Amino acid sequence: MAENRDKTFVPEAGTCVPWKVIKEELGELPGNEEIVKKEWENLDTLAYSFIWFWAQR
Amino acid sequence: MSKAEKLYQERLQRYTTAMECGKPDKVPITFPLGEWVVKYTDTTIQEAYYNFDRTTEITCEIIRDLDFDLMYSALNLWWPPMFNAIGSKLYKFPGIHLEENSQYQYIEEENMKPEDYDEFIDNPTEWLANKFLPRINEEFANPGSYRATAALIKSVAAFAMANDKSAKASEKLAKEFGVVPYGTGMTKAPFDTLGDALRGMKGILLDLRRRPEKILAACEAIIPHNIAYAMITAAGDTTLPCFAPLHRGAYPFLSMEQWEKYYWPSLKAVIEGLWARGKRMFFFAEGNWTPYLEKIAELPDKSIVFVIDATDAKKTKEVLGGRFCLYGGVPTTLLTYGTPEEVKDCVKRVIDELACDGGFVLAPGGVVMSDAKRENIFAMIEAGREYGVY
């Protein structure tokens, strides 16, 4: 998995590391994917707004 | 429903009607919160910036007996601990860099170099994280080091704390005093995102001559981010407009030709993108925008709240009135150097000229600075209620 993290991608506006990138690394989840995805995206949005805050100040 | 909740609903309805270019029962009035409040307390500006609880107390004290509809801005626009934690070079704050009753100062530098354009255009968010953040923050200058990791953790925590404290303060003002915020969320014109904290004034003015195609490509790359940033910082709200402080677009920073080619298309795209999501822009047109009014009139009806600072008010009414809500009318200099009588005369004139058929909010035309006088602010609000009844 660690080597996957060197893969480059251009995140869409509003995201830093989109869920689809992580999902590809994780593969099938044994439980409810939506629960994991929702909280991943909430924190990803926070990180995105922190990064852009400094440019938008 | 409590008295404050009823007031909140009435005021929100008044503002919403004005934003829809309608005629509410009264002209909505904005209370301009800012550092000017501090000199009427036993607090310093340093304490007002750093201590959120004290800031909320001060705000509650000053608005307690006032009758207005909207509140604009904040006492502590930036929470210094977030900047201190990461060693930010962008600002100087009172108490740590400046004397305790100074307003903060922004230090403009060329934080993005001409050779950074391509990398930024290809992947803006990654470039900001990898190149920009280490350049503007001394504690984060060496990502991966112990100091940098600790600084990043602290600054992100402070960012989340500040957002939470700010939301709670806003909730308290709404619940206890029926105060409606003027807007939710924040964004910029792409040219300003590029020309403020990234290239700086000198950098972007040189770029207009030396690498204009890079400006266009960078602005194009910024458009979706400025739409996303607005919606994220507004937490999805579409009732209130999104603040957009517009800087380099004021006349005469750019010639008409430059403005039409480099400033306007990407700003227009952001406004249209937001409007497609049901979100208005609070078009904070600092300075004079008179030469550009005809182009601004190309926007979809009601998609902006146009703030009149030094723009010709009569011309604004003529070109934009009836299609966009107009906001402002009271010069901030008058609130500092004028008398209550002069302020009242100004309010009467502004209401006669701009408010007659609705679609207007009475407010200062710009940011009210620390030297404004309380008696003038109060006179503006009182006169607004006296003359602003439809």
What is the topology?
The complex is a heterodimer of chains A (57) and B (390).
Chain A: H1 19-26, H2 33-56
Chain B: H1 3-19, E1 30-32, H2 45-50, H3 52-63, E2 70-72, H4 80-86, E3 91-92, E4 105-106, H5 117-122, H6 124-136, H7 146-177, E5 180-181, H8 190-198, H9 200-210, H10 212-233, E6 242-246, H11 256-276, E7 281-285, H12 293-296, E8 304-308, H13 313-320, E9 325-330, H14 332-337, H15 340-354, E10 360-364, H16 374-387
Parallel strand pairs in B: 1-2, 2-5, 6-7, 7-8, 8-9, 9-10
Antiparallel strand pairs in B: 3-4
Helix pairs in contact in B: 1-7, 3-7, 4-7, 8-9, 8-10, 9-10, 10-11, 15-16
List the defining traits of the structure above.
heterodimer; A: 57 residues; mainly alpha; 56% helix; B: 390 residues; alpha/beta; TIM Barrel; 5-stranded parallel β-sheet; 3-stranded parallel β-sheet; 16 helices; 10% strand
Radius of gyration of chain A: 13 Å
What is the overall shape of chain A?
Answer: flat
End-to-end span of chain B in angstroms? 26 Å
Q: What is the arithmetic mean of pLDDT of chain B?
A: 97
Helical amount of chain B = 40-55%
Strand fraction of chain A: under 5%
Largest interface: A-B, 20 and 31 residues
Biggest β-sheet of chain A: count, sense, barrel? Answer: none
| Name of the CATH architecture of chain B | Alpha-Beta Barrel
Low-confidence stretches of chain B: none
Unreliable spans of chain A are none
Order of helices and strands of chain A: HH
Number of DSSP E strands of chain A: 0
User: What is the approximate shape of chain B?
Assistant: globular
Strand-residue fraction of chain B?
5-15%
The averaged pLDDT of chain A comes out at 93
Helix content of chain A: 55-70%
Spell out the helices and strands of chain B N to C.
HEHHEHEEHHHEHHHEHEHEHEHHEH
